[in-house]
Amino acid sequence: MAMDQVPEARDRKDALFATLGSRFGSRLSTSAALREQHAHTLTWIRNEPPDAVLFAETTAEVVEVVKLCAEARVPLIPFGTGTSLEGHVNAPFGGLSLDLSRMNRIVAVHPEDLDCMVEPGVTRKALNEHLRDMGLFFPVDPGADASLGGMAATRASGTNAVRYGTMRDTVLGLTAVLADGSVVKTGGRARKSASGYDLTRLLIGSEGTLGVITELTLKLSGIPETIVAAICPFATIEGACNATIAALQLGLPLARIELLDEVQMRACNAYSHLTLAETPTLFLEFHGTQAATAEQVEAFAAIAAAEGGGPLVSAGRQEERNRLWQARHDAYWAARGLRPGAGIITTDVCVPISALAACVTQTRQDIDRTGLLAPIVGHVGDGNFHVMPLVDLANPEERRKVQGFLDRLVARALAFDGTSTGEHGIGQGKMNYLAAEHGTSVEVMAAIKKALDPLNILNPGKIFAL
Amino acid sequence: MAMDQVPEARDRKDALFATLGSRFGSRLSTSAALREQHAHTLTWIRNEPPDAVLFAETTAEVVEVVKLCAEARVPLIPFGTGTSLEGHVNAPFGGLSLDLSRMNRIVAVHPEDLDCMVEPGVTRKALNEHLRDMGLFFPVDPGADASLGGMAATRASGTNAVRYGTMRDTVLGLTAVLADGSVVKTGGRARKSASGYDLTRLLIGSEGTLGVITELTLKLSGIPETIVAAICPFATIEGACNATIAALQLGLPLARIELLDEVQMRACNAYSHLTLAETPTLFLEFHGTQAATAEQVEAFAAIAAAEGGGPLVSAGRQEERNRLWQARHDAYWAARGLRPGAGIITTDVCVPISALAACVTQTRQDIDRTGLLAPIVGHVGDGNFHVMPLVDLANPEERRKVQGFLDRLVARALAFDGTSTGEHGIGQGKMNYLAAEHGTSVEVMAAIKKALDPLNILNPGKIFAL
Questions:
Q1: Contact status of B454 with chain A (Cβ, < 8 Å)
Q2: Neighbours of B299 (CB within 10 A)
């Protein structure tokens, strides 16, 4: 008998929702549509809706709700925009989805310190909109217009992590509500600190299992004087990867360097009506002064030529840059266009960059051998790549095939000294790989979880089974 | 009655050392000189020697020793080079100093991945010596030739953190022996990962209280094509800080930017027989291509001039660079030369950079008002600065005065939204400030410590009192 079917548990839950309803009025909802929308909606993981959704507006409210959920032993699942990809917001044990999207104030911007303080529901695009006139931007760009709280919780990164880092590097401090309702402030506004345990980094990537993030202090960057975009085709994946390695060794400060494989390029040509070479292609961006970016473009063109790549085409004006990068921007929809009506599974792994060419090549062979259709797109400067199998999710045979492929993909990444996920997180989708990747460290993670959330109230059933 | 005076505890300790002696022979020592050398020797914190010192040579040995210490309930204090500044290696409850300096193998270097794996006793200079011919270097430079294990344990940084980051940013993964003797591997060789809790960052800066680091995977950088050094005097601290802020906002990739205040400059002129202006002065280093560094120097000179600084003097050849930076390199000894025979207390705090000028200026006023002699040197790009009071440690009145000053220094940094230490750590010296800085977070840190080291075996009496 599942926990929420135990009569006493059911009573506690009903009493909790009655209390929350009278306290928060229409901000508590049990509408089926809203509940489904607050569970996993992307890729193939089953939608497991919470019992109710509550919209919080302040840290004090989060404290109140966490305490009530803890008393009632009802799971609480923090929710931002629901754009995570591994089932992070599902409610496998039911419970309350705590929607933080209304906590969307930009609390402060400190241009001299290149930092800002935001509530967790602010999305990265909303923040960048706000910052633009100050000549500043927040660089982490996972593609989706995710909430910054969610991005911290999943340790998100994206296309320009190679230059600006991931959420691990760009969050200076956090306010979080822990499972006992206590409010902690971690880190701070100093650029660095050697004071005490790094609780900021512990919360980043903890996927809502250790605390509900209610405020973030973020490191910002100045909008570069000049941005130059470029694309450069290569005969082989190896050539593209070797050029990337050479550029990094030389210390070229690449702002973005993205690899699209031949299948993705074919998809992009078809989708965006382009006539690009259907070979592995690097999409690049250079940030700096005019002279510095010009020098970087020239240096990269020479490196690429030595690896059989080219011609490199570059552009400085925004319109032309957008046109050059259109294929990359449309990659997801172009991929979907390869098999209209099919489902898409977006997965990622990350390996040391020296292993990237071999790992991508073997993955391509595996895809073809398995009879899947799946483009590959990589944040190649980090050794991180995405595979997007297009699958008829109603077909058990296809599901079985793709599951085998996903298992082999992770095993291959781990065999190359890599990780099961570079940026999507564990959620539910990758729990089974955790022990293979981390060994005895999983027990340490579990010990921390038990120490900080002994009742397993916060986002249970994610990262590890407890 | 202190724990080690309880007869039963004394017996357990004697039995432990007998066991260790017969197992490790002369690698276990109870010589008074060696024990004193393995306790705090720098600044003013009292030397509290361990009962014995053991030189470990492998991870397996560390496991063995940790288990024996845990069984006997005897504290174990990991030891690298003993260059930490806040009493981190003291043995307030006695116990065993576990010297890791013989674990000094460079296990692997992967030039294509810009990473390496080292044992914890490798010092940063030994590593850089080894890397030089490959065109690579490890950038974190805390001044002392510290061991890399110790640098990770204290979350060290130093002069070029502004460009290359601290140990937080440059450690990709760790192997550590926990208090129960289990061996964990955290992180890995992938540049980024969203897989599970960030145990790497939890161990970095944990000062030996959570685990004994026995291997590190480190991120390396390519030696830049061109290095240009520069110095630039300013009329005021404000001018120097404002120029730094402007340069960072512009995205100038400063490799180092160090501030020496007028007292430090006077000390340097006297010590190194120089004739530099005795006003606040920035020491800079630029890394990049020849064209890029030339452009950076020019840009910074213009910024400095706008803030009343200059003339900026720069140099590219190594000899000339060394000559320009001589005052910075000799800063510590020059400071000591201000009051020969006196003790020196090296302390640090870190604040948001917009607050740096005010914090340094108020600190200078406090020093003068208190009647102390204390130069100030800052890693100004991070908002981190050092104060080095020269004190007759035998004089109770001077000790009292300097203690009051240190308390006010931290209070001031915290009032400016800063941290009690940017890079030296908490150790024993800053334990009293932890609650003021972190509030309820201290309880979370303590809960983690208790979960992972319930017997409080690993470096007890550091960071917090348990």
A1: no
A2: 16
